[in-house]
Amino acid sequence: MAEIIPFPVRPVVPETAPAHPAPPELAPLWREAVGDVLRTARHERGDRLSDTARRSGVSPQYLSEMERGLKDPSSEMLAAVAGALDLTLHDLTRAVSERLAPASTGAVLRVA
Description:
Elements: H1 30-45, H2 49-56, H3 60-67, H4 75-84, H5 89-100
Helix pairs in contact: 1-5, 2-3, 2-4
């Protein structure tokens, strides 16, 4: 029989806690990094949540949940919100990748 390997469970963070105080042993999730990038871009533009939501065609509640990393939006939703922020999907993906990239240690990860 196969060995069962436990998967680490993320602790539930109350709404009033800082955005993403993930313990160092847990890597941030893609949706959290996407939300951080979207929120940063929106703030840099000086937009309110409702402004970006209206331009992208999503509800302010859904956009808020995207920014907080609570939703796994479809590619269509990401394209709509990115477009409303004058970003391309390439810009968004690159910014998210940079946030998720570990600090360069010179180590190489090999997958068999």
